Amino acid sequence: MTAPGRPAPRPAPVPAAALPAAAFRGRARVRFGDCDPAGIVFFPNWFTIAHGTVEDLFRERLRIDFHDLHGARGIGTGFVHAAATFMRPGLMGDEVAITPLVRRVGRASYALDVHLHRGEEELARLDLVTATTSLARRASVPVPDDLRAALLRYGAECGTVAGPETAP
Questions:
Q1: Is residue 79 domain-resident?
Q2: Per-residue pLDDT tens digits for 14-63
């Protein structure tokens, strides 16, 4: 626990090889449009790049259609918390690996840590907490049973979530 008024300790970079072998890994190339005039990834674009991999995780590993969840099912997955630790600059043309890991699954939210690597070097780590909502009512709803089961299964396979429900 951090003392009031003191920032939380900065996480240390981890090499890509230290992440769970069972983890889903997406790939992306840093594009010209992702960068500032110096050719360095403009910091909010890491969130856009990472979100594409989260959508791929849903389809390819969780076997849940992210677009159907939002469209036909009317379940939103909006961020209630998004933070980042930037460790090294990402550069135009870089090939990056994006590894989302489930940190917890609660009643109406779930948390992901998303690691972004260039080779073994961690460039950034995103801390994302997503609430599930009814898009029609614009109100919180429980994480759907199929999504909860898929997130917990993936978290258990990666060794990042131990229990069936780890937070509210």
A1: yes
A2: 999 999 999 999 999 999 999 999 999 999 999 999 999 999 999 999 99
How is residue 104 written in tokens?
């917890």
Q: How far is Cα 96 from Cα 121, in angstroms, rounded to an integer? A: 10
How many separate domains does the chain show?
Answer: 1
Q: What is the C-alpha to C-alpha distance for residues 88 and 48, in angstroms, rounded to an integer? A: 18
Provide the total of helices (H) and of strands (E) in the chain, helices listed first: 3, 6
CATH classification of the domain holding 47: 3.10.129.10
Q: Left (φ > 0), alpha (ψ -120 to 50) or beta: where does 5 sit?
A: left
- Is the pTM above the cut of 0.70? yes
- Widest CA span of the chain, in angstroms? 46
Domain that holds residue 106: 21-158
The two structure tokens encoding residue 14: 């981890």
State how far the Cα of 49 lies from the Cα of 44, in Å rounded to an integer. Answer: 9
- Cα separation, 66 vs 68, in Å, equals 6
Q: Identify whether 102 is part of a domain.
A: yes
The answer to whether the beta carbons of residues 50 and 126 sit under 8 Å apart is: yes
- Does some domain include residue 149? yes
